peptide-methionine (S)-S-oxide reductase (Bacillus cereus), 119 residues
Amino acid sequence: MAVNEKVELATFAGGCFWCMVSPFEEMEGIIKVVSGYTGGHKENPTYKEVCSETTGHYEAVQITFDANKMPYEELLNIYWRQIDPTDIGGQFHDRGQSYETVIFYHNEEQHKKAEASKE
């Protein structure tokens, strides 16, 4: 970690996780973007299990970022531009609970900023 880095995590579910990687990965201040499943009750679920809608997981991306170069608020702005928040059944052609939108916060500051970003 560089001396002036403020490394934080952000986790967003926004439909198909592959579609959520590229809007973030090339931005300055982004260290890493990892796609996977989160929010469910089964440890290490398979794609088939998640698609069966029995694990409670969402397809999501976890972003490791330098908050000094990329503020969390800007990540939220990028996130909102990628999704349709009015679609409660998934995103675009991807249907089902695992494709619904969720902002997973990692601390109370992110929680407040995520809530404020919805307005």
The beta strands are 7-14, 30-38, 58-66, 90-91, 94-95, 101-104. The chain has one domain: 7-117. The longest helix spans residues 72-82. The chain has a mean pLDDT of 88.
